[in-house]
Design goal:
Layout: E1 2-7, E2 27-28, E3 31-32, H1 35-43, E4 48-53, H2 58-65, E5 74-79, H3 88-92, H4 94-97, E6 102-106, E7 109-113, H5 116-121, E8 129-135, E9 143-147, E10 153-158, E11 167-168, E12 172-175, H6 179-185, H7 196-205, E13 209-213, E14 218-222, H8 226-242, H9 250-256, H10 262-272, H11 276-289
Parallel strand pairs: 1-4, 1-6, 4-5, 8-13
Antiparallel strand pairs: 2-3, 6-12, 7-14, 8-11, 8-12, 9-10
Helix pairs in contact: 10-11
Length: 290
């Protein structure tokens, strides 16, 4: 399975913060926002990843992330000229996807929880599509899943005025190769975007959509507003300062999953210097050498 991280858009809900910088490059506590969805795809074992950015922001992403070789990965870059919707990611990435399965992560979504890695890895061989549902107070902001009395998904609506459930669809999706052809069939919605909900609905009608409800042990943040960005930052800060583990440390994920060796960790420690991030990687190396 390959991965796509969609990191486009203008971030207008965060103006003036995002007037001169991509939303996905903003800090969420001690890391750029993009580190978090990247670490999620890496947790799933995905090493070949396409970053879709705006034309103006691509050079900054390349400067930050490079070609991925320092993480044992292979990074590619593409441009979304206008924010035409999430489904367009599969059309832009058609050549990159080739004949493989693909996972899509939104660059402004953050996930954390016990068992997250094993849950993600269980999706990489998917036949059909697999998405998640997460209970929220404001489902009208998201794609919303409706379930029947047997907890089977029966309907998905994009940002409904009157949601039929409290379950929103987070920005993490797993698909087989049919997604490319399905994406080409999507017509723009009333708000002028090619909605990913339309793709999910195609899989649902074909009987090939799996919807997993995220448990209480899972946390999800969509950092598209100032309030949610602040909430995510506080969540990461509190957890990291109370525990000994760092959330979204891409070098640690690469090392623990054997994408890289000790020599790459040492290079990363030198790169990050005396920052807390560099110090944390030093502790990872020391624990390994004990």
């Amino acid at each position: 399975m390959k991965g796509i991280i969609l990191a486009g858009g203008s971030g207008s809900r965060l103006y003036p913060i995002t007037l001169a910088v991509s939303k996905q490059l903003l800090p969420v506590y001690d890391k750029p926002m993009i580190y978090y969805p990247l670490s999620v795809l890496m947790l799933a074992g995905i090493k070949e990843i396409l970053f879709i950015t705006t034309p103006n922001d691509q050079d900054a992403f390349k400067k930050l992330l490079g070609d991925g070789s320092n993480l044992g990965c292979e990074f590619h870059y593409a441009v979304q000229e206008e924010p035409n919707g999430l489904a367009e990611a599969f059309i832009i990435g058609e050549e990159f996807i080739g004949s493989d399965r693909v996972a899509l992560a939104l660059g402004d979504n953050i996930f954390h929880g016990n068992g997250l890695g094993s849950l993600l890895r269980s999706k990489v061989g998917i036949e059909g599509a697999s998405i998640f549902a997460y209970p929220v107070k404001d489902p009208e902001r998201y794609g919303v899943v409706e379930f029947d009395e047997n907890n089977m998904a029966i309907n998905i609506e994009e940002k409904p005025e009157k949601p039929k459930s409290k379950y929103a669809v987070p920005g993490l999706y797993f698909y087989d190769n049919r997604v490319v052809e399905y994406a080409k069939k999507v017509k723009p919605s009333a708000r002028g975007e090619k909605e990913i909900t339309s793709i999910n609905d195609m899989y649902l009608k074909d009987g090939n959509l799996e919807v997993g409800v995220m448990t209480r042990g899972m946390s999800w943040f969509d950092t598209g507003t100032v309030e949610s960005l602040d909430d995510a930052t506080e969540f990461i800060r509190v957890l990291q300062n109370r525990q000994s583990e760092m959330i979204g440390c891409i070098e640690e994920v690469a090392f623990l999953h054997k994408f890289i060796t000790k020599s790459e960790i040492k290079s990363a420690i030198k790169k990050y210097g005396k920052s807390k991030y560099g110090e944390y990687l030093q502790t990872i190396l020391e624990e390994y050498e004990r």
